[in-house]
């Protein structure tokens, strides 16, 4: 089933994104994900205005996780289902949020915001785990996804320098927001306007049609 609707976050750059067919999201997930979305609506203030211009942090290259990554995985990974992508999404962004928090001094004005966002993310992750039988998380991942998972969980000191990239905190949270809408689209559907959250074109026109503008 494809969920089509409108959304909240904007994307720079042009990509061709293939349609992503999404399985129904467990209803218990929607409340914690919407709580995350409430926090993300303030990301411009806390992740851009409170940082020096062009400030970047060091992240694993797999943590630059965009809509285009989801599309490529769907096209190139045989047998890939939505639950696997959702598991990977949680794995990616728990690391991203930790890295943002790590660079923030205790008295930085964005630290309380980021700590609260991480707490809400962990709450959603716990609900996600509880929403599926334990054996689901013991199943083998497709080889390409397992390779990504292994690289994300590798000790930093064992990673080659080529594994790292620099990104702005806001761009990381923009990606978090857009991919969340794509992978859990049923929680953010709009009955009045039907669009595909997994389409980059949706986010390019989002400034005029934001259902929840950033602040």
UniProtKB/TrEMBL annotation:
Record's keyword terms, sorted: Signal
InterPro entries: IL-34 (IPR020415), IL-34_sf (IPR038328)
Keyword Signal tagged: yes
Gene3D superfamilies xrefs: Interleukin-34 (1.20.1250.80)
GO biological process: positive regulation of cell population proliferation; positive regulation of macrophage differentiation; positive regulation of monocyte differentiation
Molecular function per GO: macrophage colony-stimulating factor receptor binding
Pfam families associated with the record: IL34 (PF15036)
A cellular-component GO term for this protein: extracellular space
Signal peptide (UniProt feature, chain positions): 1-22
Keyword Chaperone recorded: no
Protein name in UniProt: Interleukin 34
Organism: Haplochromis burtoni (Burton's mouthbrooder)
Lineage per the UniProt record: Eukaryota, Metazoa, Chordata, Craniata, Vertebrata
